[in-house]
Write a structure and sequence with these properties.
Elements lengths: L2 H4 L23 H14 L37 H14 L3 H5 L4 H15 L14 H9 L4 H14 L4 H17 L8 H5 L3 H7 L6 H14 L9 H4 L7 H12 L9 H10 L9 H11 L10 H11 L29 H8 L14 H8 L1
The structure holds iron/sulfur cluster.
C-alpha cells in the first residue's frame, strides 16, 4: 500500500493480532485475562479498572511566574520517562505523521515553494498532502536558505490559526490565503502588508474553516498592525504579548523563525500523554504548568526541548490518539527486555480483541504507519 493511501484510509491494519505479546507480570497470565474478557463481554460490564500506577513523583512548586526562572531548578525525572520516551522516538522513526509534513513549522517552506513556482510560471501550484513526501529535496533546498521576514510572519499566522484546528485544515486555509494574495499582486503572497490591507470581515470569511475564525481574524489584524518594524519579535517575552500568542506558539515561533530554543512548546497531545504516562502530577491539565514541569525535568537535557514536541505530537496524532489508540501496534504494549518498561495505560481489552480476531478496524489513520506495522509483524 502506498504511503499516500494511508492518509486517507487504513482498513486492514488489525492484522497484527498474531504478533501481540503480553509478557509483563503486571498484566496477569494471558489465559486468565481471556476468561475475564469473555465473562465481561457476556455481562457487558464497565471498563476494566486500570492497575494502580506505581511511578515515582516529584513535588513541584508553580508559584514562580518568572520565565527566566523557569527551568532554572532541576527536578527528578520520572523513572519511566527515558525508557518510554526512547521507545516513542524509535516508533517515530518508523511513522510519518501530519506534524512531520504539514505541521505549522513546515508551512512557510511549503508556501515558499508555491511562491517560487508562481514567480516562474504565473500559475498557482496546489500542494496535496500526499505528494509532500516526494517534495523533500525541493523543500530542503528552500530550508537551506534559512528564514526571511515573510516566512517568519507566515509561521506566526499559521500558529495563530492552529489552536482548535487540525493541521490538515490549517494547511488548506494557509495555501488558499497565500494563493489569494499572490494572485492579487502581492509578490510574497501572505505577508504583513497584505493582511494590513484586508478588511477584518473579509479575512474572517477567507478563514472560516479555522476554529474560532472570527476571533482569530481580529487577533491577526491587531497583531499584524502592531508589527511596526516589518518583522515579528525575536524574544518569548515580546511574542507572548501579541494577541492570540501564548507560550505554546511562542516557543515554536522562536524555534522555527529565529532558531532560538528557550523553552518547550506543549500542546494538548503532550498534556494527555504526560498525564497518561505519569510524567507529571495526575490531572495537571494546564499546558503552561506542564511546560514548566518538563522544562524543570529536562533542565540538564536542553537538547530535547526542541525535539520533544514533534516526537510526542506525531505519536499522539497517529498511534496513541485521543480516541481509538493503537495499543496493538504500539511498541510500548510489549515489555522491553532492556528497560523493563511497559506502558501504564495499555488498553488490555483491545489487545485481547485483536488476539482473538474480533477487532475490526476501518478507521482513518492520520499518517503513514506502514513501516511500524511491518516492524511489529516482523
Ligand atoms: S495507551 Fe496504548 S497506544 Fe498509548 S502509549 Fe500506551 S500502549 Fe501505546
Amino acid at each position: 500500500m502506498s504511503r499516500s493511501r494511508h492518509f486517507t484510509r487504513a482498513a486492514t491494519l488489525r492484522q497484527t493480532g498474531s504478533s501481540v505479546t503480553i509478557k509483563h507480570e503486571d498484566l496477569g497470565t494471558f489465559d486468565s485475562e481471556i476468561k475475564k474478557f469473555d465473562k465481561e463481554r457476556q455481562n457487558q460490564p464497565p471498563t476494566i479498572a486500570r492497575k494502580k500506577r506505581n511511578i515515582k513523583h516529584i513535588k513541584l512548586e508553580y508559584e514562580d511566574q518568572d520565565e527566566e526562572a523557569a527551568g532554572a531548578e532541576s527536578v527528578d525525572i520520572s523513572e519511566n520517562f527515558f525508557p518510554l520516551y526512547n521507545k516513542i522516538k524509535e516508533m517515530r522513526e518508523l511513522i510519518v505523521t501530519p506534524v512531520d509534513l504539514i505541521g505549522c513549522v513546515k508551512i512557510p517552506t511549503l508556501l515558499k515553494l508555491i511562491t517560487n513556482h508562481y514567480k516562474e510560471t504565473g500559475v498557482i501550484r496546489h500542494i496535496e498532502i500526499a505528494e509532500i513526501s516526494g517534495l523533500q529535496d525541493e523543500l530542503k533546498l528552500i530550508e537551506k536558505h534559512g528564514t526571511d521576514r515573510f516566512s517568519r510572519y507566515q509561521l506566526l499566522v499559521t500558529l495563530l490559526f492552529s489552536s482548535q484546528t487540525k493541521d490538515e485544515i490549517n494547511f488548506q486555509v494557509m495555501q488558499a490565503l497565500h494563493a489569494h494574495y499572490l494572485q492579487k499582486g502581492y509578490k510574497e503572497g501572505l505577508c504583513i502588508e497584505s493582511i494590513n490591507d484586508t478588511d477584518e470581515k473579509e479575512l474572517d470569511k477567507m478563514i472560516f474553516q479555522i476554529g474560532f475564525h472570527s476571533r482569530k481574524a481580529l487577533y491577526l489584524k491587531e497583531t499584524t498592525a502592531s508589527l511596526q518594524n516589518g518583522d515579528i519579535p525575536d524574544t518569548i517575552e515580546a511574542l507572548v504579548k501579541l494577541k492570540g500568542i501564548g507560550y505554546k506558539m511562542g516557543h515554536l515561533i522562536l524555534q522555527g523563525a529565529w532558531n532560538k530554543v528557550v523553552g518547550i512548546s506543549v500542546d494538548t497531545h503532550m498534556v494527555r500523554l504526560c498525564n497518561m504516562f505519569g510524567w507529571t502530577p495526575k490531572n495537571e491539565k494546564n499546558p503552561d504548568n506542564i511546560r514548566k514541569i518538563l522544562e524543570q525535568m529536562l533542565v540538564n537535557h536542553k537538547e530535547m526541548w526542541n525535539e520533544i514536541n514533534p516526537v510526542l505530537v506525531g505519536f499522539g496524532q497517529t498511534v496513541c490518539t485521543p480516541v481509538g489508540r493503537r495499543c496493538d501496534l504500539c511498541l510500548l504494549s510489549t515489555i522491553d527486555k532492556k528497560n523493563d518498561v511497559v506502558c501504564p495505560a495499555i488498553d488490555k481489552k483491545l489487545l485481547l480483541r485483536v488476539q482473538r480476531g474480533v477487532e475490526k478496524d476501518d478507521r482513518k489513520i492520520r499518517g503513514d504507519i506502514e513501516r511500524l506495522v511491518e516492524y511489529k509483524n516482523s
